[in-house]
Every structure is written in C-alpha cells, then in structure tokens.
Amino acid sequence: MNNRPPRVSSKHINPNLREEPLSVALAYCALPLAQVCLRLGLSPSAITVLSMLSALLSAIALAFTDWGVGFAALWFFSILLDFADGTVARTTATTSASGSFLDKFTDEIKLLLLPAACIWRHQSRTMVFLAVSAISLSNLVLYANCLCAERYRLLCSQQAGLSDPRQSLIFKTPPWRIKLKSFLERVHIAKYSLHLILRGTLNSFTAFSGNIFLYFLPFGFGEPAAGLALGTYGLVCLHSVIRSVQKCARINSELDKNHFKWK
C-alpha cells in the first residue's frame, strides 16, 4: 500500500492571486514548505496555527529584543506558512468554511499584533500615531470589504444570472481607461503586454492580501525603517478603503435604481 503524500505543484496555488505577481512569487516559495508539511501529516488548520505561533514569537522578538534578523526570519516563516496552508488544503481537497474562517481570523490578529509590538519596541509619539492609524485603517478596510460584499449579494439577488461583477453595468470601465488599456496591450515586452506588467506591479504593492504582511518586515531594523513601513502600510490601507467605498457607492446606486426596499 502506497502511503506517500500527494505531490504539491503550482496548480494548487490560489488562483485568485494570478494578478498579483508578488503574492504568486511568495506562493511558489511556500511550495517546498507545503510539501514538508504534507510529509509530516499536518492538516491545513494545524499549519494555520503554526503560522500564528510563528507570528506571536516574531512579535515577542520585536517587542522585547534587539534581534532584528531573528524577528524578520520568524515573521517571513509565518508568511510562508500562511501561503502553505491553503496550498495543502487544495492539494488534499480538504478546503472548508471553518478552515477559511480560521485563516482569515488569524490574519486579522497578526494585523493587530505586529503594530502593537512595534509601539512597545519604539515607544515614541510618532510610532504610536502611525501604528494606531495603521490599525484603524486596516479595520476600516475589513468593514468596507464586508459592507461591499453584503451589498453585492443583495444586487446579485436582484439580477438573476449575474456571476461575474464585470458583467454588471455598475462595473463598466470608463472609455479613457479602455483606450489606455488597448494601447498598453499593444506594447509587448518579452511576451507580456505593458498593461499586464504595470497592473501586476501595482496590484503587488497595493492589494490588501497576503503580500501586505511584507510591509512589516522592516519593523525590527530601527525606528526610521519601522516608521516608513508603517506609513506605507497605512497608505495601502487607505487606498483599499477608498476603492471599497467607491465600489459600494456604485452598488448602492444600482440598488436604488432597482427600487430596492431597505428594511
């Protein structure tokens, strides 16, 4: 009887990351780690818990020691485990709602844990302001995304057969963006259009997804680096809030056109 674990491959990487090259690169880096976890018999939820424990150790290293390299190593290991748990779940066909909830729940704890450890480490008014602002903005992102998802479900219930947001009139691209996209797609660089390169680069640094944790890596290398990282992270959160609010406003406008009755 063959008890060898299934082999992890690139086809098990989260397909939702395809427009974020940096996240895809991290997912590829996590493939060997996912294979090791499979050989050890670890379940996806166990990998998620290990990722949380590694993040907790990195926060302790950040808050109570001057070991910047150690903090960065523990935090990067936590990031790789965060990518590996989903890969293992897709490889073993064990994806579940509870596993997805645990993954997202631990991610939110990490988003609070690291800025708090940064405050404890540096203890300056500037760092307190930046960290509290970043935490507040990240919570706004979560609220705006949940509100947008709720409104979109209401819209889908009114528009039968709508499976892709891009099929809806509210998501139509402005004409000038269509013309710009068409021009950029005609400029090819090493088989890839300039449009895809620019969009992928922008998504890699502005999307509120797994790669957002990379902004925390400089926290252990002095107050200037930590302040710059927190400020950049805050701007990314603000950008995500604005995009979600704009999308929610368009959905609300469409619901009002359809004379949706609010309770």
How many DSSP E strands? 2
Structural class: mainly alpha
CATH class: Mainly Alpha
As a whole number of angstroms, the C-alpha radius of gyration is 21 Å
Q: Give, in spatial order, the strands making up the sheet with the most strands.
A: 1-2
Shape descriptor reads globular
In the predicted model, the low-confidence regions spanning at least 5 consecutive residues are 161-171
Q: Could you name the CATH topology? A: Four Helix Bundle (Hemerythrin (Met), subunit A)
Along the chain, the helix and strand elements come as: HHHHHHHEEHH
The helical percent reads 55-70%
Features:
263 residues, Four Helix Bundle (Hemerythrin (Met), subunit A), two-stranded antiparallel ribbon, 9 helices, 69% helix, globular
Can you tell me about this structure?
- By secondary structure, the chain is mainly α.
- It has helices spanning 21-29, 31-39, 44-64, 68-91, 97-122, 125-158, 175-185, 194-206, 223-257, and strands spanning 188-189, 192-193.
- The protein has one domain (10-257): CDP-alcohol phosphotransferase transmembrane (TM) domain (Four Helix Bundle (Hemerythrin (Met), subunit A)).
- It contains 9 helices and 2 strands, in the order αααααααββαα.
- A hairpin with a 2-residue loop joins β1 and β2 (192-193).
- α3 packs parallel to α5.
- It is globular, with a radius of gyration of 21 Å.
Can you describe this structure in just a few lines?
The protein has 263 residues and is mainly alpha-helical. The protein contains nine helices and two strands; from the N terminus they run H-H-H-H-H-H-H-E-E-H-H.
